[in-house]
Amino acid sequence: MTPSDSSFSLAENAVTLDEDRSRRCGFPEVIYAEGKTVEAVQAIVARLLEQGERVLATRVSAEQAAELVPMFPQAQYNQLGRTLRVDPEGTSQAAIGHVAVITAGTSDRPVSEEVRETLGWMGVQVTMIYDVGVAGPHRLPSRLAEFESADVVVVAAGMEGALPSVVGGYVGCPVIAVPTSVGYGASLGGIAALLSMLNSCAANVTVVNIDAGFKAGYLAGLIVNKIHAK
């Protein structure tokens, strides 16, 4: 697909791509694939690759991925995190910094995988720590060496959402809390965890939206890139 072809395809699919975002914000536009046609996502990916950008699409369904991956041989699809990453051919990037991504339970993994893939796209080194929620309080301290020196910690938790406050008491870096929609009736689809995290007594905890793994990963990635800017 030539640049003129991709421009026509973007217009045909009602897409106005922000082609100046890398200059302004440091990273290109990220594709939110949910609700978009495969043709629209294809056109955006093609245009970003033409500009030499690393591509990240979030909320990509398995059905969309089944059509998109054959179009871009270098594409990597994370089914659990529902992300699609496509790097320009022949490019590589050394990872910088360190972000620890912690989940309260295994059920929070889909959100944590979205965090992981976002950080990978931003060129950040990631440590994943799973299933160390407060119901088994001995588990988190036993993993302390893996996250105590991180630049940022991202914590995904559903149910009562207590884990970010506990993590915040162990580290001297920003803790980005992600409430997940995991839980029974009164968890209200993640609202209970969200409200709990917003009321955290740990001063280093900040909170993003429910299931917003991309937002947490992006914020963590920006912090790391500022810390390690050349």
TrEMBL record:
<protein>
    <submittedName>
        <fullName>N5-carboxyaminoimidazole ribonucleotide mutase</fullName>
        <ecNumber>5.4.99.18</ecNumber>
    </submittedName>
</protein>
<feature type="domain" description="PurE">
    <location>
        <begin position="97"/>
        <end position="229"/>
    </location>
</feature>
<dbReference type="Pfam" id="PF00731">
    <property type="entry name" value="AIRC"/>
</dbReference>
<dbReference type="GO" id="GO:0016787">
    <property type="term" value="F:hydrolase activity"/>
</dbReference>
<keyword id="KW-0413">Isomerase</keyword>
<dbReference type="InterPro" id="IPR039476">
    <property type="entry name" value="P2CMN_synthase_LarB"/>
</dbReference>
<dbReference type="GO" id="GO:0006189">
    <property type="term" value="P:'de novo' IMP biosynthetic process"/>
</dbReference>
<dbReference type="GO" id="GO:0034023">
    <property type="term" value="F:5-(carboxyamino)imidazole ribonucleotide mutase activity"/>
</dbReference>
<dbReference type="InterPro" id="IPR000031">
    <property type="entry name" value="PurE_dom"/>
</dbReference>
